[in-house]
Each structure stands twice: as C-alpha cells, then as structure tokens.
Amino acid sequence: MKVTESASRYSHLDCMSTRELLEGINSEDHFVADAVVPAMDQIEKMVDGIVERMGRGGRVFYLGAGTSGRLGILDASEIPPTYGAPYDLFIGLIAGGDTAIRRAVEGAEDEFDGGWRDMQPYHPTSEDTVIGIAASGTTPYVTGVLRKAREMGLLTGCITCNPDSPVAAEAEIPMVAVVGPEFVTGSTRMKSGTAQKLILNMISSSVMIRTGHVKGSKMVDMQLSNAKLVDRGTRMIMEDTGILDYGTARAMLLKHGSVRAALDNFKN
Known about the structure:
5 strands
C-alpha cells in the first residue's frame, strides 16, 4: 500500500460541518513543511547540480502527469516574469500535452516513452536537468523519462511522496517528502501537491538567486508587466539609492527597463 493511497485519518467527511472540514484540512497541512525537511540534503544537491550545469548552458525540464505536471508548468512559467530569465530556462511538460493542463487526457500518464518524446522538440543535451514529479512515485510517463534521460547523461531528480518508489529508483537525486495520508483518501492534490510546490519553490528560487537574479532580497530583473511591479521596482530603486524621489526613480525604471539596469546606470 502506497502512503499516498492510505486511508484518511478522518472518517465520515460527508457528515462534517464546513468548519470541521476546514479545520481538518488545515490540521493535516501542518504536517507538510516538516515532511520536506528529510529531503533537504537531496534538494541542496539538486540545486547545486542545476547551477553548475546552467553555467554551461543547461536548462531544467519538469515532467509530470495530472496535478504534478501542472505544478511543474506553474513553477516554470513564473520564472521569466519573476526573475527576467529566458522562457526556455525552465520548461514544464505534462503527460497529454497542453490540453491536459485543463482537462485530463486518458491514458497519457501510462506512456512510458511519452516524456522523452515530449522533450525532443527542445533538443535536450547532457547539460540539461530533468526533474520528474509524481506524488505516487509510480507514474510510467515520469519513470520512463528519468530512465532515458539518465542513460543520455542528463542530471535527473524526482519529487515524490512515497518512499522506495520506482520513480525514486530511476532518479540520480530523489527528493522524497512523505506527508502521510491525505484528508480525502488518495487525493494527492492536497498535502502531496503542497509538498511538491514547496520543493519546486525551493529549487527554482535558490537557482535564480545563485545565478545572480536577486540582489539582497530584491528581484532586480523582474519584468515590468503591470502597475504593481512598476511600483515595486520604483521603491526598490528609491531604497537602494537613498536619494531619489518616487517620480525620478519611476522615470529611471521605465527608461532602462529593469531595476538592475536603472541602478547600474545611476551608479555609473
């Protein structure tokens, strides 16, 4: 029996009040952050490996099915606007293709060769990294791509919530967060999904910081895609320079296109 499929600690959910449901879900969520801690050494190894390969032009591919695939796509899609990184630096792929982002594609996750096939338009190289995401740790789409990628010399890692899984056996760096039974039995979009999201946040954020996209604690390369981000960038410039008023800082930001460029121009 997989831990992710084991029976909920709660029974008769259908008889609970709304408040009881909310408190039960929240109580279970408290286990998640602690469940990530045992994976910290492996997450550190993953980040260091990615940073090393990115220095030689490598990219990161996230592959998964269902919720796991959607979480990878979410994380990858947020890197360019947040850190000003290229759109092809983190690439999220889901079993069944883009259609599966909104609707399940029957049988797609069972294609053992599907993940590696989906990577081919991106011409993967040995400098790239593949991170397979599978709460169950048994998804053939993920198992298959990890095996093939490792054979081809790519760095491989996985994020899963079951110990001793096939996916973890295929990955060079398995990252395992055992969160226990879900509140709704087998619904891995809940605690398992939260654990996966936490680990993805840790990996991508740490990689972006290590590769120079953050100064102090500020996202100096973020894209100025809306008024909120222009305002945030303006205040970063004001804080860093210590002498510019809001209007001048905003004008500099819009002229140079990023906080980093505006500050570099100011200092020069």
